[in-house]
Specification:
Layout: H1 2-21, H2 23-40, H3 42-49, H4 80-116, H5 118-133, H6 136-144, H7 155-158, H8 163-175, H9 178-191, H10 195-202, H11 207-215, H12 220-243, H13 255-263, H14 271-298
């Protein structure tokens, strides 16, 4: 029993050791943790500073950084530090949730296509290729510009303050699953030829059981890597749409619409654009570096010392 437990833990320990040797991935993970914790603690900072992130104070517009306002104030006199924290809550939430939904869709499509093959594979992969061939940004702009009230949705839904938030998650999820689908399909084609899958089929295992128990757990590596990288790309897409005025709508702050508000005062108060821009850049780069580190750590053939 002890030997079995040790053997079971060995692969996870090897992955952890490889990841810890990947300095960029570890640093990126720490940066993302700090950003996430700070964003989650935004109400605590708000209470501690005795300020209201949404309260306008026109007598204190464009204040320089001070003890009361660590990063200064915006065009309405609101504390910029708190606005960035609340914007981070929204941007990170959109990135992670939309990436999770996109991963579920892509995993389902790729797993079914790779396992069944034949006509099912051809149809699903042509669908995937069709989505990939669409110009992503114009498509997202068109979908984001649709008036929800004209789709027959009830007024309480369309008038929700958070309606733009959930719409962006839905739109980006529909467009972001293709990479995951192709990776999962390729891995499924390889895994289903292995001995343990062939043995499960010979013993009378049904397709759903085989895909769920024997194939899906072995897809963890590409799924984790694809989800991590997709989160950064989705945050960037949300920021672009919000910057264009088609994403998260005020009064809900996000890093993207903070940039939109800052562009009109770029010469008067350039720091308003610098701070959210740095946060977007840092977060996207951190997700990409973390994805690279996870890809190397989860690769069983990896022998490189990542400290070099």
């Amino acid at each position: 029993m002890i030997r079995g437990v040790t053997t079971g833990r060995a692969p996870a320990q090897m992955v952890w050791r490889r990841l810890c040797r990947h300095n960029l991935a570890v640093s990126s993970a720490l940066v993302l943790m700090i950003l996430a914790i700070a964003a989650l603690l935004a109400p605590v900072f708000e209470m501690g500073m005795d300020l209201d992130a949404n309260a306008a104070d026109l007598f204190n517009r464009f204040q320089a950084p001070s003890a009361t306002h660590p990063l200064g104030t915006d065009e309405l006199g609101r504390d910029l530090f708190l606005r960035l924290l609340y914007g981070g809550r929204v941007s990170l939430f959109v990135g992670l949730v939309a990436a999770a939904f996109a991963t579920v869709i892509g995993t389902t499509v790729g797993l079914i296509a790779g396992y069944f093959g034949g006509r099912t594979d051809a149809i699903l992969m042509r669908l995937t290729d069709g989505v990939i061939s669409l110009p992503l940004l114009p498509l997202l702009i068109v979908l984001a510009a649709i008036d929800l009230s004209k789709l027959g949705l009830p007024a309480p839904v369309t008038e929700l303050e958070s309606a733009s938030l959930y719409r962006i998650i839905f739109i980006v999820s529909l467009a972001g699953w293709t990479t995951v689908a192709r990776l999962v399909r390729a891995s499924t084609l390889s895994i289903k030829q292995r001995t343990f899958v062939i043995a499960a089929v010979a013993q009378g295992g049904g397709p759903l059981r085989i895909m769920r128990i024997h194939i899906l757990p072995n897809l963890a590596s590409p799924i984790i890597v694809a989800t991590t990288m997709a989160a950064g790309n989705i945050i960037l897409l949300e920021s672009v749409l919000s910057f264009l005025g088609l994403g998260i709508q005020p009064p809900i702050p996000s890093w993207g619409n903070l940039l939109t508000n800052a562009q009109e005062m770029i010469w008067e108060a350039p720091y308003q654009a610098v701070y959210p821009g740095i946060l977007i850049f840092t977060t996207v780069i951190a997700f990409n570096f973390l994805g690279d580190g996870l890809q190397d750590a989860l690769d069983p053939r990896a022998t490189q010392d990542f400290r070099d």
